[in-house]
């Protein structure tokens, strides 16, 4: 049913009022009422309209003595008759932002609205003061259906239900790959979306996620949905004055981030519902690559931990060992590169990181007295870096010896000459902050800097080894 909403529709003429009356059992439940006026025929996919109508109706939350009213009527706009379905509350209640198809797949309002336009050929959904106005004809351009959906539905129909569901989730994940997100910011935005609900339920939010966490590869939308589901569950199980605390920590050795979520109360008890474990499993599945460890203590506290693997960090460890010795900005650029989110070519990004790190290593030190003394001593020494240039070496050492180095000396070609000149003894290496680096490593680095073209990844591996 979920996939069929995106497939190319088969439009047929039908009468909306007669169709809904004949199929009212599909959406009319307790506390729902249907009123139908005479309306014109229109073209559309009536089965799909019926499915979407049920999804929209299920998103309304009714309070005591309230009802949900369906009203089929017709207006005239610009000389055209527009059949429409009014969906509104009679009594207290509200519209939730949870739209579920088949009790399994959650969709946003924007996605539901696009499916409605496709099902009605050119209709639209307008939000009203107490509900929705569902137009069955209009001037909106219908979105393009997904041409391969029908073939995929045929493939799924040959599978057992569990295998079909797993295959569908995998295909959705492929279409929406993870991206590096700021966990604190993304979580805070979800908390803000539910601030009014939490305030009404007297649930206190304690947010202690630190700013220092690295970006983590996640499906941003699914993480937000997971937090929203968790908040709704917390409001249901916590008594008034209960609290929901969020914290997180990063283990650099394991390359894992652990998010801790604690529900706590000092008055009353947390409802230990029979479906609590199932709820936690469902929330974990929505988070993706997460492991939940639920526990409960005397109905006063329930603690959960979500462990998220830092796949980008692990990939960087294997590619450029010691990369965390680089600046925060360069670490972020490398994370973007390894997560597939960088918009620039790999070699361009790596060259930028290399030049930035050379400047960070050399610029302040080249202006110091230690570098000045060493430069004057080495000025007349013979030799230059492999593949380098004697004149370039002399120019660089002269500027440093006079105490007036220019920032151009941090560029790879000049850096090769400087490092080669300063590498000869511990005093020279210490002047450039490389006292713990081996002579062999520095020489390989200098030779790599003068190669054409340079292997930037190999150079960054050597540089990380030198400064770690």
Describe the structure.
By secondary structure, the protein is α+β, with helices and mostly antiparallel strands. It folds into three domains: 3-135, Histidine kinase-like ATPase, C-terminal domain (Heat Shock Protein 90, 2-Layer Sandwich); 179-309, 2-Layer Sandwich (Heat Shock Protein 90), CATH 3.30.565; 314-467, no CATH class. It is 44% helix and 21% strand. It has a five-stranded mixed β-sheet. A five-stranded mixed β-sheet has the order 13-15-16-18-17, with no helix packed on it. A two-stranded antiparallel sheet has the order 1-3. The chain is elongated and about 100 Å long.
Query: N- to C-terminal separation?
Result: 56 Å
Protein structure class: alpha+beta
Tally of alpha and pi helices: 18
Query: What Rg is obtained from the alpha carbons, in whole angstroms?
Result: 32 Å
Low-pLDDT windows of residues: none
Q: Give the domain tally.
A: 3
Major sheet description:
5 strands, mixed
Helix content: 40-55%
> Widest sheet: strand order?
2-5-6-11-10
Overall residue-averaged pLDDT value: 84
Principal-axes geometry comes out as elongated
Number of strands: 18
Beta-strand proportion: 15-25%
């Amino acid at each position: 049913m979920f996939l069929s909403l995106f497939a190319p529709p088969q439009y047929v003429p039908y009468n909306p009022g007669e169709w809904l009356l004949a199929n009212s059992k599909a959406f009319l439940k307790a506390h729902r009422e249907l009123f139908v006026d005479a309306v014109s025929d229109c073209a559309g996919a009536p089965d799909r309209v019926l499915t979407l109508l049920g999804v929209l109706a299920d998103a309304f939350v009714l309070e005591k003595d309230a009802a949900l009213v369906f009203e089929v009527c017709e207006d005239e706009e610009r000389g055209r008759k527009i059949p429409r379905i009014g969906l509104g509350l009679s009594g207290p209640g509200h519209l939730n932002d949870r739209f579920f198809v088949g009790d399994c797949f959650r969709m946003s309002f924007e996605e539901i609205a696009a499916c409605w336009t496709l099902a009605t050929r050119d209709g639209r959904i307008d939000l009203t003061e107490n509900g929705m106005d569902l137009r069955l004809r209009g001037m909106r351009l219908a979105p393009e259906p997904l041409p391969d959906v029908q073939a995929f539905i045929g493939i799924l129909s040959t599978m057992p239900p569990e295998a079909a569901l797993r295959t569908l989730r995998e295909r959705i994940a492929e279409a929406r790959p993870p991206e590096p997100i700021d966990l604190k910011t993304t979580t805070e935005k979800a908390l803000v979306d539910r601030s009014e609900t939490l305030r009404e339920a007297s649930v206190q939010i304690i947010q202690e996620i630190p700013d220092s966490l690295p970006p983590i590869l996640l499906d941003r939308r699914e993480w937000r949905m997971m937090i929203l589901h968790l908040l709704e569950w917390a409001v249901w199980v916590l008594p008034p004055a209960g609290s929901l605390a969020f914290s997180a920590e990063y283990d650099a050795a394991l390359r894992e981030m652990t998010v801790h979520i604690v529900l706590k109360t000092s008055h009353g008890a947390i409802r230990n519902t029979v479906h609590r474990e199932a709820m936690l499993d469902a929330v974990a599945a929505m988070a993706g690559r997460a492991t939940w460890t639920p526990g409960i203590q005397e109905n006063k506290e329930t603690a959960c931990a979500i462990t998220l693997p830092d796949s980008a960090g692990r990939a960087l460890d294997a590619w450029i060992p010691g990369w965390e010795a680089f600046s925060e900005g360069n670490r972020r650029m490398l994370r973007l590169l390894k997560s597939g989110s960088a918009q620039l070519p790999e070699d361009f990004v790596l060259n930028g990181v290399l030049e930035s790190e050379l400047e960070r290593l050399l610029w302040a030190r080249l202006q110091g007295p230690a570098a000045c003394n060493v430069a004057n001593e080495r000025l007349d020494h013979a030799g230059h870096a492999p593949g380098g240039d004697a004149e370039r070496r002399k120019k660089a050492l002269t500027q440093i010896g006079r105490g007036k180095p220019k920032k151009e000396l941090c560029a790879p070609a000049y850096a090769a000459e400087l490092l080669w000149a300063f590498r000869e003894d511990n005093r020279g290496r210490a002047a450039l902050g490389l006292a713990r680096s081996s002579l062999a490593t520095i020489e390989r680095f200098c030779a790599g800097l003068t190669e054409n073209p340079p292997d930037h990844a190999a150079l960054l591996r050597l540089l990380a080894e030198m400064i770690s």
